[in-house]
């Protein structure tokens, strides 16, 4: 279950878990998402056509408080929830609405080397 997503300077997005590791990352080591260098070669980033600032704020768990901006004021990280949505039906419904919003976005695929 993605906790949030974060962009890279090339405009692609990465989903991350509550440990702020790439979704599905299972090495046992903790690495901060502050450094993308070790993840850039992996095919885990996606470019979406619809992720405007307005959409990103809708995905946020709490408006401006649920995002992180870079030094230029551009949204670089979005948190989908504060409390695990499986603990409350209303939270879960809200979470699935966010996932649906993202899933309706067009993805720009580009081949990546394996």
Topology:
Layout: E1 4-7, E2 13-16, E3 47-48, H1 53-59, E4 67-69, E5 75-79, H2 89-103, E6 107-108
Antiparallel strand pairs: 1-2, 1-5, 3-6, 4-5
What does this structure look like?
The protein has helices spanning 53-59, 89-103, and strands at 4-7, 13-16, 47-48, 67-69, 75-79, 107-108. The longest helix is centred in the C-terminal third of the chain and has 15 residues, at 89-103. The model has no long low-confidence stretch (mean pLDDT 83). It has one domain (4-26, 42-106). It is an alpha+beta fold. It contains two helices and six strands. Strands 2-1-5-4 form a four-stranded antiparallel beta sheet, with helices on one face.
User: For the CA atoms, what is the radius of gyration?
Assistant: 14 Å
**Which parts are unreliable, with pLDDT below 50 for 5 consecutive residues or more?**
none
* Number of separate domains: 1
Q: Could you estimate the helical fraction of the residues in percent?
A: 10-25%
- Mean pLDDT, to the nearest integer, reads 83
| Shape label | globular
Per DSSP E runs of 2 or more residues, the count of β-strands stands at: 6
List the keywords:
6 strands, alpha+beta, 4-stranded antiparallel beta sheet, 114 residues, two-stranded antiparallel ribbon, 19% helix
